[in-house]
Amino acid sequence: MKVKKEIKKLLNIDIDIDEIIFSKNGLRKHILKRKHHDSLKYFEEIDNIIKNPDYVGSSPRERDISIEYVKSYEDNVLVAVKLNRKKSVFYIASIYIISEYKLESRVKSGRLIRIDETCE
């Protein structure tokens, strides 16, 4: 998986790194530890969420570059991606469900941007 050039441009990410990696076992353990059990049913959709998000944004809490990909299914599924500068890759840090209220709030605040067909 890769971070699309259009997404990087939209989020003002100016870095040559675009590869996204993740450990299925490590991510699954993280999800269970954080009690995000409801997001497990979307585990096999991670690739689709990254390739075809409905919204993208960045977490203001992260010190380094991060990307939030959101896809609306039956639930709004957020995939959190962070940069590992030492390894020169992005990695999937978490996946969880966000409520419709949180989604709308993040769009309204500008934290998330709705993706249209021009970025696909």
Describe it for me?
With 120 residues, the protein is α+β, with helices and mostly antiparallel strands. The protein has one domain. Helix content is 27%, strand content 28%. The chain has a 6-stranded mixed sheet with strand order 1-5-4-3-2-6. Strand 2 (55-57) and strand 3 form a beta hairpin. The protein is globular. It starts with a helix and ends in a 6-residue tail after the last strand. 24% of the residues are buried. The mean pLDDT is 91.
Helical run tally: 4
The unreliable regions are none
How much beta, percentage-wise?
25-35%
Rounded average pLDDT: 91
Number of domains: 1
* General shape: globular
How many beta strands in the DSSP annotation?
A: 6
Describe the strand arrangement of the main beta sheet, using strand numbers: 1-5-4-3-2-6
> Structural class, judged by helices and strands?
alpha+beta
What is the H/E order?
A: HEHHEEEEHE
Span between termini: 15 Å
Radius of gyration: 13 Å
The helix content, as a percent range, equals 25-40%
Largest sheet: 6 strands, mixed
Task: Give a short overview.
The chain has 120 residues and is an alpha+beta fold. The protein contains 4 helices and 6 strands; from the N terminus they run H-E-H-H-E-E-E-E-H-E.
Secondary-structure blueprint:
Layout lengths: L4 H6 L9 E2 L2 H10 L12 H6 L3 E3 L8 E7 L3 E9 L4 E10 L1 H10 L2 E3 L6
